[in-house]
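agent: user wants the structure for Phenol hydrolase subunit from Sphingobium phenoxybenzoativorans. delegating to structure tool.
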Amino acid sequence: MNFASIQRESISAVVGMLVERAMSDQPVKFDREFDVERRWAHVTGTTGRFVQFNFTVADPDLSVELVLPYEAFKEFCASNEASLSIEPLAMAPFERLKWLHKDASGEISKTATQAK
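agent: tool returned. relaying tokens verbatim.
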């Protein structure tokens, strides 16, 4: 079992536990569709070799702030099939970090969209 599969299983377990807990206390009604397969990684900054980002599952109100080394961040996004967005002020530092990892033309830059 690799790091990415452990992360994916852990995230699924946490989401399942949160949904189960919410449903057991009282029924929860959502204004919109709650699809746990929808995931986003929103880069908010970089510190040294680390990427700071918010990871969201299913609903924009359900997110967690994370910090991972760049290579682990790439693996995390790929294994979770997360859509990537980058805060405008974080764009240049993030591109520099990609360049330092010789990933200036990698997968992340193809899917990245600038946050509005």
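agent: one observation worth passing along. Residues 3-114 form one domain.
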